[in-house]
Amino acid sequence: MFEIVVLIVACVIIIQLLVARLFLSGSDHSQYDSPEHLPATAREEPSLEHGQVAKLIGAWKDTGGASGSRPRGRGRLRQVRNRMDQMAENLDFEGKIFPVDVNGVDSEWVIAPGSKPNKRILYVHGGGFVAGSSKSHRPITSELARRLGASVLAINYRLMPENTRKDSIEDCRTAYKWILKNGPDGESPAKVMVMAGDSAGGNLVLSTAAWARDQEIQKADIVIALSPVTDVSWSSPSIKSNRASDIMLGSSLGQIGRIPRSISLWFAWIFNRTTPNNPEVSPLFGRLSGLPPTLIHASSSEMLFDDCKRYVNKANDSGSEAVLGVWPLMIHVWHIFVGSVPEAKEAFDNIEEFVNSHIAD
Q1: H/E element holding 143?
Q2: Which range marks the domain in which residue 207 is found?
Q3: Higher confidence at residue 287 or residue 1?
Q4: Mean pLDDT of 124-129
Q5: At a CB cut-off of 8 Å and minimum separation 6, what does 234 contact?
Q6: Range with lowest mean pLDDT among 37-46, 106-115, 256-265
Q7: Do the beta carbons of residue 112 and residue 95 sit within 8 Å?
Q8: Threshold 0.70, pTM exceeds
């Protein structure tokens, strides 16, 4: 009897391993680990201001928040969501922010003095698909509006676990079709169209850009992705190698690198409710030809660095224009601290230069 149980268990394990290898992992993208990309900054060490922010984030993640408590489950999720929204409470912004319903998707317009109504940016926030909002990312959206003279539409796509990954994808597609025909002053066509997002939002932006290409509708003029997730099969080397150096994601996403990949692939399948190699959730696995000019920023010390490098190298190899801006030793999506961290200002200088080199006012 014992031998039969052992045999059954062994068969189940073998089947799980085969399914993970044959159906969940997808093609090998290690050929896109090169070429390397030069840093976009002359800095060799982080600024003192960045060090202070990194220390505060590390302390908050260690203690579970200002109260020192660490709730679990939904309580922890509420705490994270509230904490992210608090990051924008003292925002100094001379423009105006007002809500708008985008065919059922709760959103807001961020308008700086001089923002052009027909020069538009669709912004998709990060937060691991479970947190974040248009409010939490106002430091980024307001800076984009000010720098680029554009009207920024920041959407609140449906979050997990209350909703599915498919819901977030559909909300981004709905918003993209809407913003092509609607501006802050009402219905009018977009003359300049930019898509931007960070982390999970960067994933959704890259996925939406490929979808728009395949739909044969107006493509974005520019795509900007800040530290995006491009591969939810978690196959890139930095997922493990940068676990200790990633202050923001190391304590959460870092757990993926601690378990066998065959098991993490099953978790990814369950979490996304689709195979991890589906290009809708892993843009790296899709066709990357015929895409808009794309700028990606990443820190060389974050876990998603090789995700970004592989995407850029594959896109260029496929005939699309893609540029990777690399900053050493930065926290994940350091751009959100543009009011206090000089490297964030440098990153926005780079974004402004890239956009202006492709779009003439």
Answers
A1: helix 138-148
A2: 41-64+91-358
A3: 287
A4: 96
A5: 256, 257, 261, 264, 268, 276
A6: 256-265
A7: yes
A8: yes
